[in-house]
Amino acid sequence: MNATNNAIMYRSMVLTNDQKVNYVHQGEGEPVILVHGLAASLHDWDDLLPDLAKAGYAGYALDLLGHGESEKPRRAHEYTVENAYSHFSQWVDSLERTEPLTLIGHSLGGGLSLLYALRNPERVRALVLVNPFFSTTQLPPILQKVFHHQLINTTLIERTPYRVFRFFVDMTSFNYYIGHRESHVLPEHIRYQTALDYTRAASGIYNIPRTVPHINGDLARITQPTLLLWGGRDQTLAPASFPKLAEMLPNLKGTHKFPVCGHVPHQCHPGDLNPIVMKFLREV
């Protein structure tokens, strides 16, 4: 591949339901679809997209409904998993790729990838799941209670400035040990982008988690080769839920736990995670 073919291209389009989708494309070859998590954006994959392009794949990453520069419905009840899935699947259709797709999904994006594989098995070649969110039981008890009801008044979230989100990101990025505090797990540019994505996301997205369907009983139908990766210090989703998921996937080709990473190992240690993903892609 030459440098021109591997150039990154930012695009936007309007889907058949008149909703905007913002996405990026880099590289040529077999299609790999990258799906970010809640309150994130396509920039989650800034470290993986170039590696995919160099290896001869066409990488595509979108801003999900309500995120980044994509459509942001005004009404809170429009933020559901089904609507996010519809927005995502229509975008996939718009790419007009006839080959089977490899889906790489993080957190909510992992859950959407599982749903897509269940509903379109013939279109999915393989799955890479990074700290996937597939059940509300993965959430801490306090968040399960928060997300049990629809959030109608999100004014406080809408008015939260960047500096507050940045403080939260910086504090949760520290590594703490007995009597000693290490440097940040996440590099500066990741912490900047993460806080920025929080400010850009529509406040209604926090209604999505409560609508996550219970798919445990359907996971045995996912026969595509699957790679499961997670951070051992995830404070958003219970780390113990990932080995349990591994037992339910019939064609699991590998797992890897990143002990010192939290919820975002693809951003925490891309130098370790990306080679594992590339090896998996070559083997399938």
The assigned CATH architecture is 3-Layer(aba) Sandwich
The figure for the number of domains is 1
Helix content: 25-40%
- What's the mean pLDDT score? 91
- The CA-CA distance between the termini, in Å, is 21 Å
Order of helices and strands: EEEHEHEHEHHHEEHEHEHH
Q: What's the Cα radius of gyration?
A: 18 Å
By helix and strand content, what is the structural category?
A: alpha/beta
Number of strands: 10
* Count of helix runs: 10
Low-confidence stretches: 176-182
Structure description:
This protein has 284 residues and is an alpha/beta fold. The protein has a single domain, classed as Rossmann fold (3-Layer(aba) Sandwich), CATH 3.40.50.1820. The chain is 33% helix and 21% strand. It is built from ten helices and ten strands. It has helices at residues 48-54, 81-94, 108-119, 141-146, 155-159, 162-173, 188-200, 241-248, 265-268, 270-283, and strands spanning 8-14, 20-26, 30-35, 57-62, 101-106, 124-130, 174-177, 180-184, 226-231, 252-258. The strands form two sheets. It has an eight-stranded mixed beta sheet with strand order 1-2-4-3-5-6-9-10, with helices on both faces. The chain has a two-stranded antiparallel sheet with strand order 7-8. Helix 6 packs across helix 7.
